[in-house]
UniProtKB/TrEMBL annotation:
Taxonomic superkingdom: Bacteria
Keywords: Transferase
Organism name: Labilithrix luteola
MF terms (GO), sorted A to Z: glutathione transferase activity; maleylacetoacetate isomerase activity
Protein name: Glutathione S-transferase
GO biological process, one term: L-phenylalanine catabolic process
Regions crossing the membrane: none
Family annotation (InterPro entries): Glutathione-S-Trfase_C_sf, Glutathione_S-Trfase, Glutathione_S-Trfase_N, Thioredoxin-like_sf
Domain GST N-terminal: 3-87
Signal peptide annotation: none
Annotated Pfam families: GST_C_2 (PF13410), GST_N_2 (PF13409)
Length: 220
């Protein structure tokens, strides 16, 4: 039986998009099942429909036979064990890629709180508070530093092939687009690369077609 990746609403669930891209890029065979988030228990990790498939109360969750892996980075690492090109091959580049993915996984709280993921939404550019502006500046610096050092061979952070680090920053690129965040030329070009991979375009198409809404997220 092929692994099943449970994801949240494609429009809103940035954590779901990350390992879904990784699995799509890996070429591994997997099935995707979508659970609408929102309503009773949501944001407290107590939604009955999510708890039924993920003991942490969160999606994404990957079912591999009877095993459940319920964290975006752990799912991505599981894929990379089978498809090592999901990380760069040189050890120091790989360490930088892991560090970039982990910085996203454990940080950028202001960006995540104030510019929530909403793939199909477009707002007028807004003033960013100091903390969000600091997150945006840090992300631009990180992207440009990695692209200049490792990206000469292609459009991704580490060159021609997308890695887990690129997957982890794709939802960030959607937030910059949604809220009209102005980027420098290099970062804008990289952001556009993330938003035009065939896998992201497939996800986006489904996000646009979804009828479930989370009104709080559409009004922020
Ligand atoms: N650290 C987890 C975070 C997962 C997460 O927060 N998922 C959200 C959806 S994007 C969720 O399931 N929320 C349900 C809830 O909070 O009730 C990961 O990386 O997978």
């Amino acid at each position: 039986m092929k692994p099943i990746l449970y994801v949240g609403n494609r429009n809103y669930s940035s954590w779901s998009l990350r390992p879904w891209l990784v699995l799509a890029w890996s070429g591994l065979d997997f099935e995707t099942r979508t659970l609408p988030l929102g309503g009773a228990g949501y944001s407290h990790r107590q939604m009955p429909s999510v708890l039924a498939i993920s003991p942490s109360g969160t999606v994404p969750a990957l079912h591999i036979g009877d095993d459940v892996i319920s964290d975006s980075l752990a799912i991505s690492e599981w894929a990379a064990e089978q498809v090592p090109s999901l990380w760069p091959s040189a050890p120091i580049a790989r360490a930088h890629a892991r560090s970039a993915a982990c910085e996203m996984h454990s940080g950028f709280v202001a960006l995540r709180t104030h510019l929530t993921c909403n793939i199909r939404r477009r707002t007028a550019p807004r003033a960013l508070n100091e903390e969000v502006a600091r997150d945006v500046a840090r992300i631009e610096t990180l992207w440009n530093t990695l692209r200049r050092r490792y990206g000469a061979g292609g459009p991704f952070l580490f060159g021609a092939t997308p890695t887990i680090a690129d997957a982890f920053y794709t939802p960030v690129a959607t937030r910059f687009r949604t809220y009209g965040v102005k980027l420098g030329e290099e970062a804008a070009q990289y952001s556009e690369t993330l938003l035009t991979t065939p896998a992201f375009l497939e996800w986006e198409k489904e996000a646009i077609a979804e009828s479930w809404t989370i009104p709080e997220s559409d009004e922020k």
